[in-house]
Design a protein that fits this description.
Length: 350
């Protein structure tokens, strides 16, 4: 049986790579032949390159070119179909197509607005969704009829958040609906990655838009603990070392080797939890919904740092421990539920 995956798979985004690689490996582990449908419309493709390469400084352009090269190296680990800018007859080779994970139903995404292909329009196969998300969008009765009809034709929808579940209900979906974990929780990245050995101890920063107060608190903690302050994935000049061009698998290695992770990113939060790294998640209005959802689900809401949180209060709690034994049991139960949903959805789709 042949399964296709349709998601944001080849953007130059660390979390997007981690989620598609994890879902690919999970479906393989269930005994299916799997391919990632190498689809992205031309507007989305050009917009993404424009975002990366139209920069004010030559340094930023060169840095992003190196990042693109490093990502393309790790893309070789993805089982890609032939490249296509349109969804059509080539998708008939799949018995079922899995949509997700990621915010592929975020129809107001400025880089890719209203691409109905990610809702299944034009895909001639049985359809299920796994850890799909609307992002900040919601149900709108003025959405195109083909989009809503396609969503209602899904055999099962596993949503990453309550907002997406609510959209599915309002759209009239009758198939099984369930909240599931992001696929990065279903795959053991720690067993695949080696621990970085240099520096020996470091505090990892992953993200951007940290407030000045939060930067100062992070620096003070690193200095107090004798840890080097290392930033990966983004240029953060306030850190001792900044490596914005690492590849996705290198990014995972840096998370694995960290003493602690400070992140403003959704998948930075998820991979820290998965690899059992003490972490703090700095939330912005844009990412608040998805980050708060997973932290509430795992009862880790106290690891969230608000934008207006003063340095003094943050410093008081930066060394607070995480009860990993309790969290491990809670996560194990949710992983089992999510894997069962994926397994049963694939069986029932065939």
């Amino acid at each position: 049986m042949k399964v296709g995956i349709l998601t944001f798979h080849n953007g130059y985004n660390y979390g997007a790579f981690a989620q598609v690689f994890a879902l690919q490996e999970c479906i393989r582990s269930l005994g299916y032949e799997v391919k990632i449908i190498h689809y992205k419309n031309l507007r989305f493709t050009l917009g993404e390159y424009r975002h990366f390469l139209i920069r004010k400084s030559v340094f930023e352009i060169l840095s992003n070119l190196i990042k693109i090269r490093n990502f393309k190296r790790d893309f070789r680990s993805l089982a890609l179909s032939s490249r296509t800018y349109e969804l059509g007859k080539e998708n008939r080779e799949y018995d079922v197509v899995v949509f997700g994970s990621d915010s592929i139903w975020n129809y107001t995404n400025p880089l890719n607005p209203m691409d109905m292909g990610y809702f299944g329009v034009g895909v001639d196969a049985d359809k299920i969704a796994y850890a799909v998300s609307m992002g900040p969008d919601g149900y709108d009765s003025d959405l195109p009829t083909p989009l809503l009809d396609s969503v209602c034709s899904f055999k099962a929808i596993g949503a990453r958040d309550e907002n997406t579940l609510d959209f599915s209900r309002k759209a009239g979906v009758k198939a099984p609906l369930e909240i599931v974990l992001d696929p990065t929780f279903l795959y053991d990245f720690a067993s695949r990655t080696a621990r970085k050995r240099e520096p020996e101890k470091y505090l990892l920063v992953y993200g951007y838009q940290f407030t000045q107060e939060h930067r100062e608190a992070t620096r003070q903690l690193a200095q107090k603990m004798g840890w080097e302050l290392v930033s990966v994935g983004y240029e953060n000049s306030w850190c001792e070392r900044s490596m914005p061009t690492v590849s996705p698998f290198e990014w995972l290695e840096w998370i694995k080797g960290a003493e602690m992770v400070m992140t403003s990113m959704y998948h930075g939060t998820l991979l820290s939890i998965q690899m059992e790294k003490p972490f703090w998640s700095f939330v912005s209005p844009y990412r608040r919904k998805k980050i708060s959802h997973i932290l509430n689900l795992l009862k880790l809401e106290d690891r969230m740092v608000e934008e207006n949180e003063p340095k003094e209060f943050l410093l008081e709690r930066l060394s607070d421990p995480i009860e990993w034994d309790t969290l491990r049991d809670r996560k194990k139960r949710l992983v089992l539920q999510s894997m069962n949903f994926l397994r049963n959805s694939l069986i029932n789709a065939f």
